Structures
1.
Amino acid sequence: MSGFQRHRRSKLIIANFTGFEADLLRSLAGQLVELLRNEAAVPRDTVDPFEAMMDFSGPTQAPEDPVLARLFPTAYPSDAEAASEFRRFTEGTLRDGKAAAAVSIIDGLEEAGLPPELTEDGLMIDLELDEATAETWMRSFTDLRLALATRLEVEEGDEAYWHSLPDDDPRAQAHDIYEWVGYLQETLVQALSG
């Protein structure tokens, strides 16, 4: 696991993944896409013609799923009506953007040679990203980390708890994945800054 680096002679951002790492990252991105696209928008009963043309039919209530609630926090916690309207006008576009960023990860890994079904050991994936794509991946890593942290109920200062779990505990393994995505994000930020 080398993380991301800027190529010495080009402006490309590069990384090398084992087949297992690439498949895991594809799986995480796929799960995020599925989560973002499965909760249906709730249209309003009355829609004015301009709104119908612009399709402002986004949800008006905060998502029930804790991950989605973390990814799409309430903009105006003390004003339910303003929060509802803000969510209706923005959440659909935000969901589409987050899903597209996660799909970019899936597409990038598959274009770099990750097969639809990982069957061979020793496979290495050499990845090259332009800066715009790397920035998209960076945003999606943020979403992945928020999703993992929410599901695991990670809190600031709880590192000792996570490190005290036995290696074969599924929670410890999931937390290792959370830390790995954080490492990838950190190296990507450094590569983009360099």
2.
Amino acid sequence: MLTSITPLGEQGRGQRWGLTAGFLLIGHLIGGAALAAVLLGLGATVHWVAAPSDSTALGVVIVAAAVASVLDLGNRSLPGRRQVDERWLTAYRGWVYGFGFGVQLGFGFVTVINTFLFVALVIGGGLLDPVPAFVIGVGYGAVRGVMALLSGGVRTVDDLKRLHRRLDRADGFMRWAGAVVVGVGVIGAVAL
């Protein structure tokens, strides 16, 4: 989906990339806010039912993050291939599909999830206090939205091919970097 909305593609569909991309980003933020609402609801339910101690919650998050990192490094993927409906690209105006795609991608649960760290994010968000949980949800949507804007320089077919090659090369590195960041976080949390 990252390369479906580009200046080149929008021009071919008779749309303006800036407008579509702006609504895509707004949609990501709203989708992230919806994710935050789910995290807050999950957290309220968990604290109502069990009220885990801070050390228990931290332990659960550490285990979830460590397992997610190992699975990501093992090139495993979550089941399901649900993606946004590409027919929208020709059925609606750019701002409509930009916004709709953004909401779905920013929410996370209704599209393909490429990393097990998303599961750890949901577990952590559900165990945290409301403010950090809200920041995690909106932050997730914002990061996905900014990633979608990487296609802003695609003006030719060669630009699109270069972007695809860069994304393919970055996949393994990003999995490794995510696992390292989580590993450092786990070590830091255990040291505390």
3.
Amino acid sequence: MKRITISIFLGANLCTILLLWLCVALTYISPEHLPRLSNLTLAFPVFLLVDILFIFFWLLFKARLAWVPILGLLLVGAHTLDYCPLNIGKDKIIGESNDSNITVLTFNVSYIPDKELQEELISFLNITNADIVCLQELPKTFFSDHQKWLDSTAYHYRQSINVAILSRFPFLSDTLSINYPTRSNRSTACWIDCYGDSLLVINNHLESTHLSPTDKDDYANAITDPHRQTIKNSSRMLLGKLSEAVVYRGAQTDSICSLIDRNAGHPVIVCGDHNDIPISYTYQRLARRLASAYREAGFGPGFTFSQRFFPVRIDHIFYPKDWQCLSCQIDKSVPFSDHYPVVARIGKKAN
């Protein structure tokens, strides 16, 4: 009986490792080909946690088998650190630029129609004092409504509908068109003169799942008060919307990567609400071209979007791989959006 029990648990551990590997493999395949299966990457942290628990299980009951879950972790080691980096000793550096380092901020502000909340956003921007600010879901009239504040700063700005870039450096171009399939989301790009270099900044708000508050409540209720039919209906609805959105994001990511590749001779910064976690086609395709600020300087899973049962990191800052990231923080003190801002201090590596 003991041998059978051990075999069952070993089989379960091996299945968990295979699922971890499958999640990683799916990040290399366009969601267009496997739209429903692509959503399996969302379960990566669950499989990761189970595999870690198996380490302790084997140490307690069959120590010589502890190498199995450890090998599973090693097989997906780099991706584990994408999801949960463990950088220690990165100081919080936010403020005035010095030398060639710059502070970059990305923030989905959730439209903030309330004037008092807009004043809070302005206060936050003043305190953060970032050199480049990428905002998503910004009201179209925000800058015209706050022209006096804008005139009092050193910011130049470019805005395309509800996506905007603020820069303390002069712009070298107007917004560049990034055409990709979408229902309502968008990306915008601009060239900026950054200490004499032409820097391409791409600000993204990639395809949302379009889950309404009612959809989210139904899903949350199915978890807290489970009934078979309710769970079935909620799961079918959720999977359908997730699958549709992930296909859009795959095509959008391909368009952004094409823009990056066409300008491979210039530094590129990519920011925004990508609506995808680090174990995803979107994140990994960008990470193969650029460095991730939170991956290089963050600690822990670093959730940037946190509503009931939806804690995820979907807001990212990418920068050239020959630069360095001195610090990267997620500011969870900001109360007026369902996203948290991400702030990174980056710059060229010293020769």
